[in-house]
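Exercise 7.
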Amino acid sequence: MEHVRRADLHLHSFYSDGNLSPDELAERASQAGLAAMSITDHDTIDSQREAFEAGRRRGVEVVSGIEFGVEEEGMEIHILGYLFDVDDPAIVEASRALAAAREARAGRIVEKLAGAGIGLGLDEVMELAGRGTVGRLHVARLLLERGHVQDIQDAFNRLIGNGCPAHVPRKMLPMQEVISIIVKAGGVAVWAHPGKNAARKGLLDRMVRAGLGGLEAWHPNHSPDQTAGIIAQASRLGLVTTGGSDYHFPEAMKAQIGRCFTPLESFLRLKERARGHLT
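Solution. The predicted structure, written as tokens, is:
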């Protein structure tokens, strides 16, 4: 298929909570006619080298990516990092520390589920996570497989989401630290799927002062009005805009790979920002 002018910059592999390998993601990106992609696994860069090689084989440009969670103003915000040096010591160390914290959290969730009368083994959750960093989605998938919930969302709504019997807070780095790590590694920090929160001017302005370089405008969770508003905010503040399908696995899929995407012009601006040509 001839490549069209778009990039999917929000994909997850089995190195975090996706179900596909980097090569499988690159293959699907190629089949979807994408010119470029980024694997933005949660709190880990373990997929990156495989992704670069897979992109070369499949004829798809691959740029480095990661997705961090931070807490700000009492809510969890996700920060995407793009085009950073994957060998940067600070981003490598942050990934390792957060992976260890995720495993400890999974153990506490399993304990709380047992207290609620639902028996899952941590070894089973870790087996489902495979080589990836473990997360709540792995627990949710196991709950679904065992028939304890109707679907993935039901697991979060009744058991492991905020305020639920088996909820355990996730270790998150401060917002300013996360943005600083990404920028010092030569990358661009982008607020992931901000939705209606992009209109919170004080919050957005504070993130920009910390070094935020972009906003994710095109995302399956965004309405057309939200996308338009995010693009307007980015223009107001001189930020780049990105987008992607946020693909994890079929049960959690809201858009096919490549269906929600970054236009080529926006992708080129992201690369210019990383090179320091946009300020």
